[in-house]
Design brief:
By secondary structure, this protein is of the alpha/beta class. The chain has twelve helices and ten strands. The strands form two sheets. The chain has a seven-stranded mixed β-sheet with strand order 1-2-3-4-6-8-10, with helices on both faces. The protein has a three-stranded parallel β-sheet with strand order 5-7-9, covered by helices on one side. This is ClpP/crotonase-like domain-containing protein.
Length: about 280
């Protein structure tokens, strides 16, 4: 594979690079705020994950064949658009969803999709390099990663937030199950899901939503994320990283696989009216 790779090829909205033999960097750049939509998921993110996994597995198999115990490591870093320090991602492309009468307040076309499960059980360590605001579906993407490195917000403010409660949108099973899995404290779950709290970087660190804070710009965040990735990349050499995660996160993986229909607010109200 020749790097860098832009996906989709006709209008790239992600760029995949391979700066060292064991590190891959996936940059999201769908507009200035890296919005998540079906094109990004199906035509860019998923194919990029395929490339990384294929390349890693080829190296891992070669290392096993050569009985190289130090070979076959790897880690993937996901970052928002480079060259700016404001957004990791602003979440789903809601304006387009709201303009579609069949999709308004219904994320099913986007979340009934294996992308979150794929990332949650990815076979090598994953690090979210959160270089700015991280909202809604982007927070889900970050939580699905194994580690999270975030800007400390000293040069430009940055928040993590699940803001669906503020505009009256219900969660799909995948979102709720990931929150339960990655945010085990019920008080923090309440702040995330029911209050839509805007976590500052220090609050996110204290709550366990992120693992490290970094002073500086996007490149500083990437550098720290790469250091984290390199520190654990060898854990993938045995081939068990993804296998263990599939069992560790089994409840979330099974729940998200059942995301065939998202409960609608109006339907919930109609059901309540009928029974009360």
């Amino acid at each position: 594979m020749s790097y860098p790779v832009g996906l989709p090829s006709d209008n790239p909205i992600v760029t995949l690079t391979h700066p060292t033999p064991i590190i891959w960097v996936l940059e999201l750049h769908n507009g200035e705020d890296s919005r998540i939509n079906e094109t990004l998921i199906d035509k860019a993110l998923q194919p990029a994950l395929n490339i990384v996994e294929r390349d890693w597995r080829e190296g891992w198999r070669a290392a096993r064949k050569a009985k190289d115990k130090d070979g076959g490591g790897g880690a993937l870093i996901i970052v928002g658009k480079r060259g700016q320090n404001k957004f990791f991602s602003n979440g789903l492309e809601l304006d387009k969803l709201r303009s579609d009468p069949h999709s308004a307040h219904n994320f099913t076309p986007l979340v009934h999709n294996p992308w979150l499960r794929r990332l949650l059980a990815f076979p090598i360590p994953t690090v979210a390099a959160i270089n700015g605001h991280c909202f809604a579906a982007a927070m889900m993407l970050a939580l699905c990663c194994d580690y999270r490195v975030m800007t400390d917000g000293s040069s430009r403010r940055a928040w993590m937030c699940m803001n669906e409660i503020h505009f009256g949108a219900a969660y799909p099973l995948s979102f709720a199950s990931i929150i339960r899995t990655k945010v085990p404290d019920p008080r923090t779950q309440r702040k995330v899901a029911l209050e839509g709290h805007h976590f500052t970087p220090p609050e996110a660190l204290q709550a366990g939503l992120v693992d490290f804070l970094v002073k500086g710009d996007t490149e500083a965040v990437i550098a720290k994320a790469q250091a984290v990735g390199e520190s654990v990349a060898r854990m993938a050499t045995a081939g068990a990283w993804g296998v263990i995660k599939r069992d560790l996160y089994r409840d979330a993986l099974e729940a998200s696989a059942r995301d065939d229909l998202l409960q609608q607010i109006d339907a919930d109200d109609a059901a309540a009216k009928a029974r009360l």
